[in-house]
Design a protein that fits this description.
Strand content: 25-35%
Oligomer: single chain
Radius of gyration: 22 Å
Number of helices: 8
Structural class: alpha/beta
CATH architecture of the largest domain: 3-Layer(aba) Sandwich
Strand order of the largest sheet: 5-6-7-3-8-9
Mean pLDDT: 88
Number of domains: 2
Length: 259
């Protein structure tokens, strides 16, 4: 995967969601990091042809310059942030239908639906109604739907949204598996830094529709420091003697420290 955006602006009425954005996403697992409202989802939707930019150029290196939205969506799997399930369908019905909508023949869509539901851990729940799924299961069935047509590139928009700690770990492990074992290129959109650090090689950081930082994670986090204010009781205990390598503490007196 190599995706390039040049001078892209996306506007919703008077609101500028993405402001003159120029950025590239290379192969591998890339984090698209930023607070809610930073413009991350708008970038993904524009690349999929679901939102029309006001101006700018977008290009997938492996697709022709005049690729249609249909061609792009056949090449890319998209897991949206919000629930996007068919409540009256079973997990198998939903994933198989989306496989057919992606251009797969019926039997191939059925076969792929079984395969990807097994991959995400829903093989035993595939014939249950999606409306009866837990939050974690609904996230997994959305991931299965994004994978059913075997895309080379995955756009995952807040894939750990609403999950408990165990669900987050399972989802992050699935994403790692897709990247490292199955060779998928991934754009992982989230506001959670720890998730990006868990599964991504590099990150693009957005704020108010602009890129404010980008590069390998090691480079972005190199030299980063965090300060914590602590109170030690009893105050006669010295915290400085307990510090690990790479930590520094300044005594503020009366058992208080800035670490």
């Amino acid at each position: 995967m190599s995706v390039h955006l040049e001078s892209v602006t996306i506007r919703y009425g008077d609101l500028i969601a993405v402001d003159n954005l120029s950025v590239s996403f290379a192969s591998g697992s890339i984090g698209l990091l930023g607070r809610n409202g930073a413009g991350k989802s708008s970038v993904l939707k524009a690349l999929l042809g679901l939102v029309q930019p006001e101006c700018g150029v977008m290009r997938f290196a492996d697709l022709p310059a005049d690729a249609t939205p249909e061609q792009i969506r056949a090449y890319v799997g998209y897991m949206p942030e919000r629930d996007a399930h068919l409540p009256q369908a079973t997990g198998f019905d939903m994933v198989a239908l989306l496989g057919m909508l992606s251009g797969l023949p019926r039997l191939d869509a059925w076969r792929r639906a079984h395969e990807v539901l097994y991959l995400v851990g829903l093989e035993e729940q595939r014939y249950r109604l999606v409306s009866s799924y837990s939050a974690g299961m609904r996230q997994k069935v959305k991931l299965a739907a994004a994978l059913v047509h075997d895309p080379q590139v995955l756009f995952l928009d807040e894939p750990t949204n609403g999950l408990d700690p165990d669900g987050r770990r399972e989802m992050l492990e699935l994403v790692r598996q897709l990247s490292t074992q199955l060779g998928k290129s991934i754009v992982f959109s989230t506001h959670i830094l720890q998730d990006v650090e868990s599964v991504c090689d590099a990150a693009v950081v957005m704020e108010r529709g602009r890129v404010v930082a980008q590069g390998p994670l090691g480079q972005l986090t190199k030299g980063a420091a965090r300060e914590y204010h602590l109170q030690v009781e009893p105050s006669t205990v010295s915290l400085i003697e307990q510090l690990q390598l790479g930590m520094r503490a300044d005594s503020l007196g009366d058992g208080r420290y800035a670490v």
